[in-house]
Amino acid sequence: MRPLTDDETKVLFEKLAKYIARNIIHLIDRPDEPYCFRLQKDRVYYVSESNMRRATAIGRKNLVSLGICFGKFTKTGKFRLHITALQYLAQYAKYKVWIKPNGEMPFLYGNHVVKAHIGRVTEDIPEHQGVVIYNMADVPLGFGVSARSTVDMRKVDPTGIAVFHQADNGEYLREEDALF
Amino acid sequence: MGRRAKNKQDVPLPFELENKIEGKVTKKLNDRLKHEAIRAHKQREAALKQNKDSRRMQPPASPKDNERKRKRNTAPKPNKKITKPKVESEDEEEEDTPAAATILDEDAPVDGWDNAPIVSDSDGGIDSDSELESDEEAESADDNNADSSEEEFASAEDGSAAEAEIASVNEDSESDVSGSDSGSESETVTQKPLSLLSDESDEAESDDGIESYDEFDTDAEEDDDEAVTFRDMEKRSRKIDARRQMEAEMAELELETGEAVVEGERELFELPSEEQVELEKEAPLDLSQVQLRIQEIIRVLGNFAELRDETKSRNQYMSQLKRDMCYYYGYNEFLMDKLMDLFAVGEAIEFFEANEVARPVTIRTNTLKARRRDLAQSLINRGVNLDPIGKWTKVGLTIFDSQVPIGATPEYMAGHYMIQAASSFLPVVALAPQENEKVLDMSAAPGGKTTYCAALMKNTGMVVANDANREREKALVANVHRLGASNVVVCNYDGREFPKVMGGFDRVLLDAPCSGTGVISKDASVKVNKGPEDFIMLTRLQKELILSAIDSVNADSGTGGYIVYSTCSVTVDEDEAVVNYALRKRPNIKLVDTGLDFGRPGFTSFRGHSFHSSLALTRRFYPHTHNMDGFFVAKFQKLSNKVQVSEEQVVIPTGSGATTKQRKKKKGSHH
Asked: Which residues of B touch A87 (CB under 8 A)?
C-alpha cells in the first residue's frame, strides 16, 4: 500500500473528471473525515485516512482490500474504472441517463444502451462523455460513455446505440474473479 | 388363514351393534384393551420361558380368536359412528375396519405366524407384496425371523393409528374428525417411507394441518388474487402466524391424548436378533421397514418399563436404533452418536428429519442502500413471494418462492440485499457493534456478517474482515463492495496470529470454522465425512482461535470490550466445551447475555462434564425448533487487559496453541 505518485493521480483524476467533473473535490474534501487514495497491487482504493493508518499494520501480502476499490492501473499506465466505484460516481455524476425497466436487464448483461430503452436523460450531455446509468427508481446500474450528444440522441432511430457500455452491476456476478 | 381373516374383517358391522356401543364405550374399551395387553404380556413371558422356538409353530389359540372376533365387532365402531354418522362411504369403512382390528391381533400372542397374514391384510393393497411373500413362506414353512418381525412392525404401525382413533373418541368432535382420518392416513404413511415423523401424534398433526389449511384456503386464494402490497403482506403474515399457533395447539392436544392411550396396550416389539443384524448388513432392508422399526423402538423407549422385552437391555434397543437411524438417514456412526447425545430420542428424530428439509431462503436488507419496506415492494413487483423473518430482526425477509433467480435481480446486483441464512444474523445481533468502533471479524468469508456489522455501524469506524482462505476472500471482497461497505479492510491471515497483527479491538466476532452439523440440510456431505479426527482438529483450532479473539479485544474500550463466539455446529465439543475452555484459560472474561430473546440456553452439564454455570447465558438454535440452521452463540465481556498478560505466560508453554502460534509467527516473518 502506498500513496499515488503525481502521474498516477493525474491519470486517475482525468478519468474521474469525465464522470463527475469538478465534484472530485467532494471526494477529497469530505465534511466527515479526510479520505485518501491508496495504491495496493495495481488497484486504487478510496479509504478514510484513519482506517488507512490502522491498516498499515497489515502486511502488504496479507492486505486484500481496504475501503472501496475505484479501479486499476493497466500495464500501459492507463486507469480503468471498476464497477465498484459506482457508488461514488453515482453520487456526484454530472451526466445521467435513466433507463426504462425493459432496458434494465439488457444493460445488466453487458449490452450497450439503445435509444428505445432510455426513459430520461440529462439535457446537455456532449458526445463521448462519461455518464452514469440509473433505472427509473434512481438505482444506479452502471456507467458508460455517451455515443451521441443529447441533441443528436433525439434523431437516432430506436435501435441506435445511445450509451456505450463500460461497467454494470452485473459484473459482480459475471466477473467476480477478474474484479478482485 | 390370511384370506379367511381378511374376509372376516371386511364384513361391515351390523348397524344395531354400532348403536349399542356408541358413546361411553371408549373408556371401557380402553380398559379392556389395557387389561388384555397386560395379560398377553404375561402369557407371552411364560411362553418365552417355556420354549423360544415355539413361537414359530404356535397355533392360533382359540379363546383368543373368539376374543378377537368379539372385539373386531366393537372396536372400530365408536369413531366411525361419531365422526360421520350416516354418509360413511363403503371405502372408508373398509379402510377403518382392518386398521382397528389389528389392535386386537396385538393382544394375541405376538409372534405366531398366524399374525402375519392378518397384518398384511390390514395394510391393504399397499403391502400386497409382503402378503404374498408371507403366504408363500408359510407354505414352504421356511420361517425367516426377519420377515416375521417386519410384519409385526407393520401391524404395530397400523395399530397405533387405530389407537389414535380410539383416543380421539374421548375428545370433542373436532379432534374426532382428525382421528378418524388417521386410519386411512396410516396407509399413506406406509407408502411414503421418507416421512418418518408420521407416527401417531404427528399423523394427527398433519391432519390438523390439512384441516386448518382448508379453513384458510379461501382466504389464501383471495390473497393471491389481490394485488399483493407490503401492507397486505403484513396482514398475511399475521394470519399465517395465527394459523401456526393454532396448529401447534392442536398438535399438542393430539399429542397428549395420543400418548395417554398408547401406554401399555400394544403388542410387544421384538428387537432383531444378532443373526438378523448380520443378515441385514449384507442385504439391507427396505427403507420403509427400517422406518417402522425406528418408530417401534422409540415407542418402546418411551415407556421402557412396560413395553420392553425383558431379555433385552436399554442399550441393545439404543444400539439397534442408532444402527437403523444411521442407515435410514445416511450418517456415519460417530456423528450419529454425537448428535443422539444431544437430544432425547424423539427430538433427535425431529432434528434428523429437519436436516432433510431445506431451510427457507432468507435475505438481509442492506440498510446502507435500501430500506426493507422499499426492497420488499420492489421484489414483490418482480414476482417474489416474501415475508419478514420474524419480530427479532428488522432487516430480514424470508423468500417463499420467486419467479426470478433471487441472486441475480437488479436489486441484488445493486447491493440492496444479501442472501444470508437467518442464523447468521444472530452473532451480529449479539455483537451489536456501535458506530465508530473498531471491530474484527475473524473468519469473515463470504462477508454476510461483516457487511451486517458495517451496516449497523453505518459505515463509520472500522471493520477488519479476516479470512484464512484466499479463494473465499474473493467473494468476501465482492460482497463488501457490492453492498458498499466502505469502512471494511479485508486481510488474509490465519486467525491465530491476530493479537500480533493488530489488537485493541472494541468487539471481535469469531464465527469459528466448524464441522457444520447445524447446516446438514445445506451440505449433506457432513453426514459421512466427519470423523473423530476432524473433531479433534476443529476443536483444537477453535480453542486457539477463541483465545486469539479474546486477546485481540481492548477491555478498556469505552463502548465495547465484547467477544462473540459462534459456530454453525450443534455438538457440545465445538460449542460449550470451547467456551468453557476459554473461561478457564482467561479469567478476565465473563459470559454475558447474548441479547437474543429466543433460542435454548447452552448446556451447563453434559454427559458427566459440568461446565461453568454461566454457560446458561449462551444460546443454541436448532433446525427443528427455530426453522433456521443449527447454531450456537456465546457473548463474552472482557473485564481487564491485565490478567491476560500473566495468564498468557502460563498458557504459552503449556497450551497446545502455543507451539502453533510460534511457528506461524516465524512463517509470517519469513514472508
From this structure: 484, 486
Of the partner residues B413, B438, B476, the one whose CB lies closest to the CB of residue A170:
B413
ipTM of the complex model: 0.95
Q: Is residue A88 part of a domain?
A: no
Q: Closest to B473 (Cβ–Cβ): which among A64, A172, A173?
A: A64
- Residue A105 structural domain: 94-174
CB contacts of B383 in chain A (<8 Å) are none
- Contact state of A65 with B668 under an 8 Å Cβ cutoff: no
CATH code at A53?
Answer: 3.10.450.220
- Name which of B436, B476, B491 to mutate to probe chain A: the one with the most chain A Cβ atoms within 10 A of its Cβ: B491
Query: Could you tell me the end-to-end alpha-carbon distance of chain A, in angstroms, rounded to an integer?
Result: 16
Residue of B482, B490, B668 lying closest to A172 (CB–CB): B482
Question: Can you give the CATH number for the domain in which A165 is found?
Answer: 2.30.130.10
Q: What is the DSSP string of B89-102?
A: -HHHHHHHHHHHHH
Residue B326 known to be catalytic: no
- Check: pTM over 0.80? Answer yes or no: no
Q: How many domains does chain A have?
A: 2
- From A20's Cα to the closest Cα of chain B, the distance in A is 19
The whole-angstrom separation of Cα B407 and Cα B419 is 7
Which one of B326, B453, B514, B568 is the catalytic residue?
B568
Residues on chain B touching A142 (C-beta within 8 angstroms): none
Question: Of A18, A50, A81, which residue is a domain's last?
Answer: A81
- What's the DSSP call for residue B600? E
Domain assignment present for A146: yes
CA distances to A79, B310, B375, B548 from B371, rounded to whole Å, are: 34, 64, 6, 36
Residues A143 and A164 in one domain: yes
Domains in chain B: ranges and CATH: 274-356 (no CATH), 360-419 (3.30.70.1170), 422-638 (3.40.50.150)
In a domain, A180, yes or no: no
Q: Evaluate whether residue A89 is within a structural domain.
A: no
CA–CA distance, B259 with B266 (Å, rounded to integer): 12
CB B282 within 8 A of CB B276: no
The DSSP annotation for A81-99 comes to: E-GGGHHHHHHH-SSEEEE
Alpha carbon A152 to chain centroid distance? 24
Residues A127, A152 within the same domain: yes
B135 is known to lie in a ligand binding site: no
Grid coordinates standing for B231? 401492507
Confirm or deny that B494 is annotated as ligand binding.
yes
Closest of A27, A44, A43, A24 to residue A35, by C-alpha: A27
Are B417 and A172 within 8 A, CB to CB? no
Find the residue in A nearest to B378 (Cα): A137
Record: contact A64-B477, CB cut-off 8 A:
yes
Helices marked H in chain A — which ranges? 6-20, 24-28, 49-55, 86-92, 101-108, 150-155, 171-174, 176-179
**Three-class HEC string of B323-340:** HHHHHHHCCCHHHHHHHH
- Whether A61 and A107 map to the same domain: the answer is no
Grid coordinates 489488537 are at which residue?
A: B503
Mean pLDDT of A33-54: 93
Q: How far away is chain B from the Cα of A46, in angstroms, using its nearest Cα?
A: 8
B171-207, pLDDT tens digit by residue? Answer: 444 444 444 444 444 444 444 444 444 444 444 444 4
Looking at the structure, tell me whether residues A134 and A170 fall in a common domain. Answer: yes
Distance in angstroms (rounded) separating the CA atoms of residues B104 and B36: 9
Pairwise CB contact (< 8 Å): A68 & B481: yes
Q: Which of B481, B484, B501 sits opposite A57 (nearest CB)?
A: B501
DSSP-assigned letter for residue B383: T
Cβ distance A66 to B671 less than 8 Å, yes or no, reads no
Verify that A76 and A102 share a domain, yes or no.
Answer: no
Q: What is the pLDDT of residues B271-328, one digit of tens each?
A: 777 777 777 777 777 888 888 888 888 888 888 888 777 788 888 888 888 888 888 8
